[in-house]
Amino acid sequence: MKRWCFIVLVVTLVAIPMKTYGWFKSYDAGGAFEGGEYVHQTADGGYLVLGYTDSSTWLLKTSPLGDSLWSRIYSGGGKQVDVGFSAAAVFGASGGGYIIFGSIPAGYRVFKINAEGNVIWTRSYEGTLTGVRQTSDGGYIVAVDGSLIKHNPQGFVEWEKSYSLRIAFAEETSDGDYILSIDHYFGLLKTDSLGDSIWCKIYIGEIGYGYCLGGRVMETSDDGYILSGTASPWLDYFMRILARVDSLGDTLWTYSYSEDIATYLTGLDMTADGGYIVTGGDNSTFDGLVLSKFSDSGDTLWERWIKEPYLYPEWLETTSDGGFVLTGFSYDKPSPHMFLYKTDAGGNDDPGIAEEPSDVPLRYEVVSLGREIVLRYSDLPGGFHASIFDASGCKVDELHSTQSSGALTWGEGFIPGVYFVVPLDSNQGGAQKVVLVK
Predict the structure, then answer these.
(1) Is residue 348 part of a domain?
(2) Closest by alpha carbon to 178, among 200, 203, 206?
(3) Is the same domain home to 333 and 396?
(4) Which pLDDT value is given to residue 269?
(5) Which domain does 370 fall in, by range?
(6) From CA 208, how far away is CA 382, in angstroms rounded?
(7) Would you say the pTM of this structure is higher than 0.85?
(8) I need a surface site. Which of 7, 289, 387, 393 has the fewest CB within 10 A?
(9) What CATH code is carried by the domain that includes residue 364?
(10) What is the pLDDT of residue 8?
């Protein structure tokens, strides 16, 4: 039987911020119901956020640290679809400015604005917008109800194809065709460049759940696809689903996680190391969001639950530094407001740590006891609270006790390597370094 033990190095450290990758910002346009539906990092390192404020469309430009640079509000839009399913997007337009897609009460609209945010033209169409992406010819592919609609760069319709299945999202593939995720089922539809069906795969039987909400689909580097979704066979039971398939739609692996809270997967993107990042939120209480990282082979690398403030994500994008940015709505104020949440590549918004001597005496002691460590402390009226960091500076866990004296154990389930125990109260001493070995 394998045994793990900890070697405790008697080095006292302090927590010192390294390069900061994470931050949270909330924005208020004065509406009673506000949120973000789409975020994209711009060439200057800042962010362009598309959202809503009451019955209007809201476009916000920020700096790389999330500070608002300018804001524009366009009447007649707002959020027209169910909470948790983003159907708006903004893209850079040829010749400058931006093209915006968004829902309106009677359908959806496309409008172009210049670099200052002034409207140049507007076009409106019927149907419920569920997804839109830019295509290689500068046009746009739009999922609307059970149809796939191709728009040219000026927003006019080039062609439209209807299907017997409802389309949740569409993406152009490297061969100029399209891959579509299917709503109300967990499946994919592959079409040619004119929207004619090539193949259709329904994975509902493999997963075994009768009702699914389709999510985002993306093409992978080997011409396969990654697909996200949510299953809910009954109202008090939910399943987050991620599937990796080959170029013909045959399943390579699936991931599913069952829980009794209404966690919908609302965001999916690829990561800098070839893996995948997904996000979702509790659609019943809006009590925080989840961020999960997967390898290309389907292994769960880490998962983070962010509970405070109350956040619900609607879009996720990988950023140029390898981290992630999310937008959605936040209940950190009396009514929902738009937020941006930026993390590092490990899904953390905390700075890392660096080794440096500390003169503050330790108020706790770490003891090696085989597979786990025992941390003992005494005479701390507020209890003991600490973060656990790995060697890269990413926070991997927390320790909490409200007792004034006691002991905490930690280490089960963590891989061998260097870790740091960092008290949240600096008066309790600096960090202690431990090495988990096989």
Answers:
(1) no
(2) 200
(3) no
(4) 94
(5) 5-17+357-437
(6) 48
(7) no
(8) 7
(9) 2.60.40.3080
(10) 35
Q: Which residues pair with 16 in a beta bridge?
A: none
Domain limit, last residue, from 319, 343, 367: 343
Beta partners for residue 377, in sequence order: 364, 406
Tokens of 338: 């738009």
Q: Is 243 part of a structural domain of the chain?
A: yes
Tens digit of each residue's pLDDT (9 = 90 or more) over 314-345: 899 999 888 999 998 887 656 778 999 999 88
The pLDDT of 206-234, averaged and rounded, is: 77
Instruction: State both tokens at 157.
Output: 């319709």
User: Closest Cα partner for 371 from 339, 426, 411?
Assistant: 411
pLDDT at residue 426 above 80? no
Give residue for tokens 């500068």.
138
